[in-house]
Amino acid sequence: MKVNGGVCKDPKAVTADDFFFSGLHKAGNTSNPVGSRVSAVNVVQIPGLNTLGISLARVDYAPRGINPPHTHPRATEILTVLEGTLLVGFVTSNTENRLFTKVLQKGDVFVFPIGLIHFQQNIGYGHAVAIAALSSQNPGVITIANAVFGSNPDIPTDVLAKAFQTHKPIIAGIQAKF
Amino acid sequence: MKVNGGVCKDPKAVTADDFFFSGLHKAGNTSNPVGSRVSAVNVVQIPGLNTLGISLARVDYAPRGINPPHTHPRATEILTVLEGTLLVGFVTSNTENRLFTKVLQKGDVFVFPIGLIHFQQNIGYGHAVAIAALSSQNPGVITIANAVFGSNPDIPTDVLAKAFQTHKPIIAGIQAKF
Amino acid sequence: MKVNGGVCKDPKAVTADDFFFSGLHKAGNTSNPVGSRVSAVNVVQIPGLNTLGISLARVDYAPRGINPPHTHPRATEILTVLEGTLLVGFVTSNTENRLFTKVLQKGDVFVFPIGLIHFQQNIGYGHAVAIAALSSQNPGVITIANAVFGSNPDIPTDVLAKAFQTHKPIIAGIQAKF
Amino acid sequence: MKVNGGVCKDPKAVTADDFFFSGLHKAGNTSNPVGSRVSAVNVVQIPGLNTLGISLARVDYAPRGINPPHTHPRATEILTVLEGTLLVGFVTSNTENRLFTKVLQKGDVFVFPIGLIHFQQNIGYGHAVAIAALSSQNPGVITIANAVFGSNPDIPTDVLAKAFQTHKPIIAGIQAKF
Amino acid sequence: MKVNGGVCKDPKAVTADDFFFSGLHKAGNTSNPVGSRVSAVNVVQIPGLNTLGISLARVDYAPRGINPPHTHPRATEILTVLEGTLLVGFVTSNTENRLFTKVLQKGDVFVFPIGLIHFQQNIGYGHAVAIAALSSQNPGVITIANAVFGSNPDIPTDVLAKAFQTHKPIIAGIQAKF
Amino acid sequence: MKVNGGVCKDPKAVTADDFFFSGLHKAGNTSNPVGSRVSAVNVVQIPGLNTLGISLARVDYAPRGINPPHTHPRATEILTVLEGTLLVGFVTSNTENRLFTKVLQKGDVFVFPIGLIHFQQNIGYGHAVAIAALSSQNPGVITIANAVFGSNPDIPTDVLAKAFQTHKPIIAGIQAKF
C-alpha cells in the first residue's frame, strides 16, 4: 500500500520505532561557509509522519553564523531559541517587501509564515541553537542563493544581471562560488 | 477584517511582535495532582499564527509526573525531550487498541498521530522538559479523565458504570475528584 | 492504480455494485455488555466511497443500552433517531469540559462535532434505532474505555491511577474487564 | 464573530439546541408535478453544523414520483431507503456518460459521487422514504430542468435548441412549464 | 511511485518536457452539431500537472456556435476572449436559478464558479477563440444534454418526461439525437 | 458578511459584473528596468473570484525583457505564449537545485509548480505576450531581487554578503538599485 506517494507498512508490522527519532540533542557541524547547520527530522527520518503534516529541525549557529535567506514552499515555521542570541527576519511579498525583524534570546519564539523569505543570524558571542517546527511532513527548502546563483545548470547570466540590476561579471563572480 | 473567526489587524499596523512570544525557557509549575504543566504557545499567544496551521507547547514534568491521557482533536504532535527521561505512548483506534510505547531520553523525538489518545510519564529521578509542536494554530486538548469524569454537568453515572463495566459507587468516587 | 491508499478498480470494470450496500434494515445484535451494536457502512463495505468523504452506521440499542463514550478522530457525526428515545451528549474540550445533552425522540437529529467525546443511552422501554452519518469514508472509532483501560498491552496502572486520581486496585479492576 | 461566512454565537451562549433538529419523521408533501419532496436539514436548520462538513435530507416519494436529475456541487450523497422501492442512478462525466443504476429496497444504501447528475424514481406501489446524508453543511442543489429550462431570465432558446439538437418550439414548450 | 492515482516518474528522469505542451495556437475543428471545439490541456497532456490544481483549455467557436450548457464538477473556470464576441452565462443553484449573462469582447474575462451550469455562444460574425483556465488538473466535464439525454444506457424516458414536464415522445426524440 | 477575509455582497445585489474584467487585450507598459509588465486579474479586480481558487495575469515583454526570478507562495502557474519567443525556467528545491528550461513559441504551454523560483526571458526580436493562469484567487508574488536586496528596511548587508558569499560593497551596490 502507498499513501501520499510513500510506501505504507503493513499495519501489523508497524512499531513504535516508526514514530521515533533519536539524536536531536547533538550539535550539528557548523564548519561551512555560512556557519550554520540544519538537522532535519521529517518524513524521511520518521516514516510514521506520512500524511500527518508536521516536522522538525534543529539549527546550530556558530558565532556570526547565518541560516541564509530561504523559503519553505509547503510550510510555516515556528522557531524556539534554546541557546544564544539570534537576529531573525522575514520579508513580505510584493509590493510591500517589508522586513520584519526581531532579536531573540533563549526561550523566545518567532513565526515565519509559509512561503516567505526568512533568515536567522547568530549575533551573540557563543554558539546558538534553535528548534524549528514546520507545518508539513516534507516542507522543502529553497535556499535563495543556491537556487538563483547555484542552480544546475546556471540561470543565464544576462537574466540575473537584469534581475539584480548589476553587471554580468558580478553575477558570474557570485555564480562561481556556488 | 476577520479570517478564520479571528480578528485581522490592519496589515499596516502589524509588527514583528505579532509573530513573537517570549518565555518558553521558564519552567512551568508542576505542583498539581498530575505533576506536570503544559505551557501553550498558540494563536491565543501569537496572533500572527492565525491560518498558519502550527503551534507549540512546553511541558514540564515533576519526578513521576504524568501528562495524562488526552487527545488533540485538530493536531498531530511531535515531541522532543530537552531534559529527563519520559515513557510515552499512544493507543490506536478500534478494534485493535494497540499501545505503542517508547522510553525517550534527551534529544529523542516521538510522534502522536492526530486524534489518538496519548500520554507521557516522567520515569527519571529529576525534572523532565519537552517541547511539543502541533499541526494546528488551535489544536485543542481533550483530557480524557476531565472530559469523561469531570464534565459540567456530569455524564450520568449509570452511563459511565456500563461503559467502564464497573459499579456506580466507583464511578461516583472518581467523579468526585474532578 | 491506488488512490488514498486503496486499490482503484479499472474504471471499465466498475459497476453499480461498487456504490451499493444491502442490509441496513436488519437489527444488530445487542446481546453484549453495553447493550448496543454499531453496523458500519464505510469504505470497507462500499469501495466506491473512496475519497468521497462520507459514510454511515446503523446503531441498535437494547433497553438501557448505551453506545459508550467515544470519539471519531476523522469525522463529525449527525444522528437521526428512527425508533425509541435516546439521551445523547457530547463534552467540549479543555478547559470548559461542558456537557451538552438532549433527549431525542423519533425523527430528532443531533450533531456530534469532529473529535469530541460523545455517547448515547436508550432511556425508553423498548429497542431504539438510529442512523448516523459521518463526514469521512473511514471515520475511525476510539472507544474511551477500550483505548484507556483495554489497550494491548495495558497502559501502566500507575499512569492511569494518577490520571483518574484513584487507587491502583480500582484501575486494575477496570482493566481486568477489558 | 463569523466563521465561513456564518455568524458564530458567543460560545457561552451556545446550547444543545444549536446542534438539534426535530421532525425528520414527518412525511413531506409530494403533491407536486414530480411527486417527491426533499426536506433538508443543513446549516440553515442546525447552526451548529457550520464548518463541520455534513448534512441530511429526508426524501418522500409518491408512487411513480421522481427526484428529478440534479447535482450537488459541494457534496457526495449516501442514500438509505427506509421504505419502498426506488430505481436510482447517476451518470459519469464526458466522454463516457455511463449510467449506473440499481433497484433499491428497504435497508439498501447507494452512493452518488460529488458533482455527478443523479436521480431516484419510486417504482413501487406505495410511498417510499429515504434518508440522504451529504458531505457538506451546505451542499447546494442544481435541478437540471429548473436550471436549464427554468432559469430567471431564460437561457436563449437558440442556445438550448442547439445544445439539445432539437427545434426552438420544443425548447420553448419545455421552458413554458418552468 | 504513485501520487493522486497517477504514476510518478523517477525524479531523476523528469525533464522540462513533463511540464510542457505545444499547439494551443492551432484552431480546433468546429464542424460538428454545436459548432465549437474544446482542446483540453490537463494532466493527461502534461503529466507534471499532477497534484498542482490547475489546467487549461482552448475553445474555438464557429459563427453561432455554442459551447453547450455544462458543469465542471471539480473546477472553477476563468475564461479570456482572444478573438470574437461571446454571449456567456451561468445559472445559480436552487431555489433562485438566476442566470448571470454578459457579452464579452476581445480581452474580456469572465468567471464560472465551480459546479454551476454555464455556456458560451458566439454571437459575432466570425470565428471566436477563448482560453479557459480551470482550478483542477483534472476538472471533468458534464455536458448536460449528453449526460441527461445521451447516457449509456438511457435514463428511463418516463423519468425524463416527468423531470422536464413534457411528453415521452418529445424526450425520445431528443434522446435519439445523442 | 465576510468570507475568507473579504467582504461578501448581499447575494441579491450580486451582478454579472462581479465576475467580469475588461482589458486583458491591452499591452502593458514595458518601459522599466526589467523590460516586462505583469497585469494581474485576481480577486482584487474580480470580487467574485473570492474562495474560487484561480486567477490570471497577462505578461508583456519588450525584446530582451525578463520577468525576473520570483515565486508565488500560494499558486502553481500555467503559462501560454500568445506572441513571441520566451526562454522560461524554474529551479527545484534543495539539495538538487536543478534548472528546468524550455524555449517556448506561440501556442506553447509551460507549468511552474507552486512555490518554486521561476523566470521568463524574451529571446525573440519583437515583443512577446503570455497569459498566465494561477491556482489561487490571491497568489502573491515574491520577486527575489526586491525581497532580498530591496526590502524595507534592508536585510543587514553582512547577512547577505555571507549568504551570497561575496563582499559587502557588492551587496551594498545591488541594494542601492532597489
TrEMBL record, chains A, B, C, D, E, F:
Statement: the UniProt record of this protein carries the keyword Manganese: yes
One GO term describing the cellular component: apoplast
Pfam families, per database record: Cupin_1 (PF00190)
Every Cupin type-1 domain range: 22-172
One of the record's GO molecular function terms: manganese ion binding
Keyword Ligase: no
Keyword field: Apoplast, Disulfide bond, Glycoprotein, Manganese, Metal-binding, Secreted
Record: residues binding oxalate: 67, 72, 77
Binding-site list for Mn(2+): 70, 72, 77, 118
Subcellular location per the Swiss-Prot or TrEMBL entry: Secreted, Extracellular space, Apoplast
InterPro entries: Cupin_1, Germin, Germin_Mn-BS, RmlC-like_jellyroll, RmlC_Cupin_sf
Matching CDD domains: cupin_OxOx (cd02241)
Family (UniProt): Belongs to the germin family.
Function recorded in the entry: May play a role in plant defense. Probably has no oxalate oxidase activity even if the active site is conserved.
Protein's name according to its UniProt entry: Germin-like protein
Biological source species: Cucurbita moschata
UniProt lineage: Eukaryota, Viridiplantae, Streptophyta, Embryophyta, Tracheophyta
Gene name of the record: LOC111433067
